[in-house]
Each structure stands twice: as structure tokens, then as C-alpha cells.
Amino acid sequence: MTQIPTIVPLYQAPVHIAAAAALIHEEFWRDVPGASVQGMQARLAGGLGADRLPLSLVALHEGQVIGVVNLVDNDDEQHPEWHPWLAGMVVAEPWRGKGVGSALVRALLHRARELRYPCVYFGTDGPGFYARLGAVHHEQPRADFWFMRFDLQ
């Protein structure tokens, strides 16, 4: 059985900001003109406390970042009323399928409940993973993309 990593808020482990930023950038932003690892580092460095957004959680194994997930105010300018959002959830390739992503999402939802949010929104092209964790379909704007939410109450 694979050992589930330690999950910590990034503000408690700022030494890992660069590695978390690189992981997110490589997965989601590598081909986006103008996007950079440095820009993502600056965004992640903005999460400075336990009681406000943005909030980033990192999964660590033997001192290395193997996954990251974020809770942000909003991640879709077309729907500013949807708040907050799960964003930038990524697990390093060798760790995928081993429970790291599930552990990160559960930890993030726990933090969202502590902050008294009634739900958490997100967009995905892979709804099955999140549905297994309890997410429900909210809207499907395209055949290959879903807006989903976790109801926390």
C-alpha cells in the first residue's frame, strides 16, 4: 500500500512555493503565452494565512512536493457569483493513481468547511475523479468540460 503523503498549507512551508508553482505551471500553463513559473510563484506567495483566500495545500513526500491544490476566490470571470473555487489541482506523474489527489481534495474541502463556505466550485474535463469524491455536476458548457461543485453543508 502506498503511503499517503503529508499535506500542509503552503503558507506554513513557503520553501516549497517554487516547486508547487513549477508543478502547476507545467500542467496547466506551459503553453499559455505570457505565463511563467515566476508569475505562478507570485500568485502562490499571495496565500499568507489560514483564514483567507487564496489558500494552497501541498502534498509532501520525503520533503518533495508531489501535489498541490488551491482554494481561490473565483476562477471563472463569466461566473463571479460562484465562490470559492478549487483550482490548480495537480499531482506529479509518478504519484497519480495512488490517492494523493483524493487526499488533497479532501483536505481542501475540510479547510473550506472550516472557513464556513457552503460549497466549492471548479471546472474540469475529467468529472469522474471528482464525482467519486462527492462532487455534483453544476453545468456543462461544452461536450468535453463540466462545471462542478462540492456541497459542504
Helices and strands in order:
Elements: E1 6-9, H1 17-29, H2 37-45, E2 55-61, E3 64-72, E4 85-91, H3 100-114, E5 119-124, H4 127-132, E6 136-142, E7 145-151
Antiparallel strand pairs: 1-2, 2-3, 3-4, 5-7, 6-7
Helix pairs in contact: 1-2
Helix count equals 4
Quick one: CATH superfamily? Gcn5-related N-acetyltransferase (GNAT)
Instruction: Note poorly predicted spans.
Output: none
The whole-number mean of residue pLDDT values reads: 93
Broad CATH class: Alpha Beta
Ends distance = 32 Å
CATH topology: Aminopeptidase
**What's the count of strands?**
7
**Helix-strand category:** alpha+beta
CATH 2nd-level architecture: 3-Layer(aba) Sandwich
Strand content: 25-35%
Major sheet description: 4 strands, antiparallel
String of helices and strands: EHHEEEHEHEE
The geometry reads as: globular
Please tell me how large the radius of gyration is.
15 Å
Quick recap of the structure?
The protein is of the alpha+beta class and 153 residues long. It has helices at 17-29, 37-45, 100-114, 127-132; strands at residues 6-9, 55-61, 64-72, 85-91, 119-124, 136-142, 145-151. Helix content is 28%, strand content 31%.
Structure in words:
Strands 1-2-3-4 form a 4-stranded antiparallel β-sheet, sandwiched between helices. A 3-stranded antiparallel β-sheet has the order 5-7-6. It has one domain: Aminopeptidase. The relative contact order is 0.15. A hairpin with a 2-residue loop joins strand 6 and strand 7 (145-151). It has helices at residues 17-29, 37-45, 100-114, 127-132; strands at residues 6-9, 55-61, 64-72, 85-91, 119-124, 136-142, 145-151. The N and C termini lie far apart (32 Å). By secondary structure, it is α+β, with helices and mostly antiparallel strands. It has 4 helices and 7 strands; from the N terminus they run E-H-H-E-E-E-H-E-H-E-E. Helix 1 packs across helix 2 (37-45).
